[in-house]
Fold each of these.
Amino acid sequence: MEPFGIPLEMIYLYGLIISGVLTVLYVLFADVFHFHGTGDGGLHFLNPVLIFAFVTILSASGYLFERLSTLHYLLILGVSAVFAFIAVTLLNVFVLVPLSSAEESLVYKESDLRGRIGTVITTIPSDGFGEVMIDSTSGRIAKPASSFDGDFIPNGTQVLVVQVKNGILEVTVHHQLESFI
């Protein structure tokens, strides 16, 4: 069959190329134009990523079946559609849904640093500033610090963050309880 005088395999190939290009453009520019699918409610299967993936897989499998088999064109379309539906469903369930619920960033608030234990990496003078390194699950945070009590705190000392003012940690020496045996 040749709709519009074009062989079906060429229609599948054009569909594959166009949907592949649109998929790449969508991935690159979705955040710029704020295309985020359907948001938090409604029809999640209308997500543009899923639609582009469906058309891409349908076109690719249709093209391959047209080139490599002698099946009827309606059977090829049906088998390709079922294959694309299964692949897109698996993509959605095992990739897109877990990614959408993943942590979006590793940003922290300065108020989250209160009560944390850190190590002085630049000596804190009694009336000046030094630097403290705090280890976290997402990496290390180095912040300027001053002494909360006005004490001199040497390099390598374990400190407790008492408060944060204007981006500067106010710290005091952390005294660990020693176990008695």
Amino acid sequence: MNWLDRSIAAVSPRWAYKRLAWRSGMEVFDAGSRGRINHNWNPSQSPNEHMKATERSLIRARAQDMERNSDIGGAILSAFDRNVVGTGITLQSKVSHDLPGNIEGEFNRQIERLWKEFCKAENVDITGTQSLEEIEDMSIRRYIVDGGIFLVKVYVKNTKFPFKIQVRSVDELDTKNTIVTPSQGNRIVEGVEIDQHNKPVAYHFKKVDGYLLNSVETVKIPAKDVIFLYKKTSPQQVREVSNLATALPRVKDANQFVEAVSIKERVLACLSVFIKKDVPSGGAGRGVRTSSETIDYSGVSLAPGMIGELNPGDEVQTVVPSGQASNAKEWITTLVRLTSAGIGLSYEAVSRDLSQVNYSSARQGLIEDRKLYKKLQKMLIERVLTPIYLEFLDAMVLTGQLNLPKYQQNKEQYTTHAWIPPGSTWIDPLKEVKANETALASNQDTLARICAERGEDWRDVVAQRAAEQQLIRELSDPEPTATDIPKEGADNEPDEENKDAEDADDAA
């Protein structure tokens, strides 16, 4: 009830009840009803970002705890690790062969060779501990658990690759910095400085002193030098929220249920004996236990084969809940299904339990899972890998390691490239091969897309097949030997006897 209804209820409860009853009867949507069924459903109506700010850190801490201690959490993250980055996302330079100097794709070979060297840990990472593939893996993991991650572009001196990447956690943002700069019209929300259009202008990080974060000093980094990988779900959103927010309650329930069942089964497995003594009937005297000799039960626990002694008159009362062991599998399966559905994966992808699927259902689940993996791959390519690659090209041209004539004038042609995600196989390769053959023959599909799904470039496949077929022809049809070649001047005409025999056969 609002303040008016409460005031009326204080004077006339009947009148207030009638007002509430009539208002409930005139409501259009059940979801908007304030009746008895929705009495405790009163979410906050404050702006979305304000609500998230108070819970963001707590959700992230709980997600990180799940990452460390939960089997289900580890299974979720392993599914993304295996299928999003996998064996790595490969670069293929597509510089046009029409550009002067790009003889037989020489520019492409130079760029790909330098990029492969740049991706090593000692060249790409400012700390020299992670290769680019490992940074991609960690980025996806932190995107799922923390909700986001920062990749900062930095430059160093006296090295072959001056451009490097510094990985920073969202925990490093200085959320206490709320300085407003009226002259520029900017404001700082949770460590992110935004302009009047809510566009990030700079990020304010805590200064690192050794292994600790200084909560007083702040480092400001312009937004153009920062890649902030996070998922934005509302127009007002500025900061990240863990992608496991909806899954955390179900994972917590599963962990507590498994722990309770485990404790119950361990207690039942403990074969223990308790010695119960009668209550003494006589007065104080020899052989009669006095109150000073009472056994203290605090801190006592069950152990296999233990023999316990009870105080006179005490009994052992046990509570053995029924049902946990019998329906444990069904209940845990239900929790895992809810958790998997909340993050967009199938139950089989998380649990690795394939006992209840057939070919059709397994393939359908795999198709839906791959849609999510491809979406994350596209996000990783467009928001992380492509900006890093473009910055890498600029650095290589400026340092003279890439000699690309008129690079600034033809930059769009020089930066043309493609990314090939890791390939994947299907459940029944024979059926997929026949389907691809039919699709190609009927012009419903292309070789480029089919090869891309397997993590290969169709040009490489065609070139390799042509080379193999050429080698097969050379080995199958060897050149004629010297004995097979007729000598010069030799009489190649048939002899007279053979000629007469052939003529007789023709006449017959």
Amino acid sequence: MSNLQKEFTTFHNTIKLGTYDENKTLRDKRDLLINELSLALKDEKIPGTEIALTFTKIDLGSYAMKTGVVPDGGDYDIDVGVIFNVTRDQYDSHALKKLVFDKLNKQHNRTVEYNRPCITVKYAAGYHVDVAVYCTEGNERYIAWGKQHNKSTHSWWEADPEGLKTWVNDVDSDTERRTQFRRIARYLKKWKGKHFSDSGNIAPPSIGLTIQARNSFIYDQGSDLNALIGVVKGIKSKFLQMWDSESQSFKWSIEQDLPVKPYKNVYYKMTIGQQDVFYKRVDSLLQALEQAINEDSDVETSKILRKVFGKDFPLVEDVRASSVAPYVSTGNNA
């Protein structure tokens, strides 16, 4: 059996993207947009009052949870929340989110999109910022959720962005176990980046993979490969077969709710056909990982894992004898 822990460590060091505190470039890009929004809102008031409309920032996403990877193609995804000093009664969710959208949509060097969970600001430089809009009532947070041109879909959804970060980070009290979990989450994201690049098959959201990895993770000292296999088995076990009326056939389907408010299914965007593709690729991943760990040859194991993760996974050199030992005469000639 082979686990190539040395190669996994090298691979992880290659794909790892640090937190905002560790990565000045990402931190500066995040702060540039937040400072711009703050300046654009400086004259805004809470409706019906003379109280200034203000917000505080909260870091979200994989960088905040310490599971970020260097993106394929260079599209860095920066997630940040803006928590406003208003209650649900003081500001309509659609109105406040549209205000933020309008303030950020005034420059021409970028594209601004109004999405259900957030506002996405895309830059030609190869990164985008997802801005989630929250209000606050005491210790409770509510996210402005809904489509841009359909006000009936809009509402304040109870949410717990701080709780989600805490839940992921509290996978274990032991530092090394938490570190292995984060490595496993990064491996899954790298696999996703390689195997869901085809158009027409929406990739499973990274938060879904992270939550499922957290649910299935069992620490395995000295073997990231073995721990990863356990997690992938756990993900596969969550799929159920359901009847798809459109194709008139059974397909594999999956749901995974957030572990904190609003407890929404994180795979809500995926059609049943896309979920079925997701299952088949998880199944192929599991088969490849099990083949890799059962190989006697480290060389062959590394070749399999490179097909799984891409060229960033190091190949083990096939070291062979460069020459055959010469024939030595015994000297006993007749």
Amino acid sequence: MTHSSTLEDPRVSAALTRMFASADQDETRLPPSWRTDFAAATPQEQADAAAEIFMPISAQGGRLLYNLIRAIRPTTVVEFGTSFGISTLYLAAAVRDNGSGHVITTELSAAKAEAARRTFTESGLDDLITIRLGDARETLAEDTPVDFVLLDGWKNLCLPVLKLLEPRLAPGTLVVADDVDLADLQPYLDYVRDPGNGYQSVTFPVEDGMEISCRL
């Protein structure tokens, strides 16, 4: 007997194909000075400036996330950084195929959040996803249990968001951060790679690298 995953649902696969194709054009949408300009901007200004930029995880990274969630079967998945919702679709597809669970995802850009919401509805996964619009350091402050975390928003905020969630991370909770090659993520990596901070961490070599950290 064969079982297909929700990733093979024509609505989901079509959405992912469309968004990955658009993401391939990211570089053409960015002004040459964007790295310099972004460095001095607030997170909200950065989000507004990047309102048309996908900055997605890779397809391989998405499948890795899908497999991890299928194996762990978390009740509550928390994502920092929705963007247009590519990674969120992988998370929600795994939750759907597990038969239980919910995805809470956060986004600073109102335009991106609205576009993602439309995609989730078109993909038939909107009932499994809650989008929280605003700064994740505020929208994730309420005392929601957390069973799996994906950190893929602004890299300099990954460590503050992790520390915000930390009191709610039970032993065995997995925390995944994307783009280990980006300099802004280094303080986060230094933190989770130090055993004194309560994590066992490993870098997974998929595209720009994912750091998978287990709460001890």
